[in-house]
Amino acid sequence: MRDEHKRQQNETKFGSWEELPDGGRRYSYDVPGQHGLTARYVKDVDVTERTVQFCQEIYDDKNRLVEIHEKYPVDKGHIKIAKEE
User: Fold this and answer.
1) Cis peptide leading into 32, omega within 30 of 0?
2) Phi then psi dihedrals of residue 43, to 5 deg
């Protein structure tokens, strides 16, 4: 059973989401950083709005993904993404 209160909280906090094929959602919001970088916080939830994954993605000034920090369910630390030249 979906938690409507939690869904409303996620919609308010993140402001942006997409429906996933399994009935869950992917919420996200962007935070501009220094030196042209942008941090995107991404939260995946299942159909009941229970968090299944949470991570931070870092994008460069050309909107290329350069780093991922998966924080939940296991904190894997920062992982650099190889740049294609």
Assistant:
1) no
2) -125, 120
Q: How deeply is 70 buried, as exposed, middle or buried, from its count of CB atoms within 10 A (0-12, 13-18, 19+)? A: middle
Q: How many CB atoms lie within 10 A of CB 6?
A: 14
Residue 21 corresponds to which tokens in the numbers above? 């094929």
The phi, psi pair for 57, rounded to 5°, reads: -110, 135
Alpha carbon distance 27, 54 (integer Å)? 9
Single-letter residue type at 11: E
- Are the beta carbons of 77 and 67 closer than 8 angstroms? no
**pLDDT tens for each residue of 50-73:** 999 999 999 999 999 999 999 999
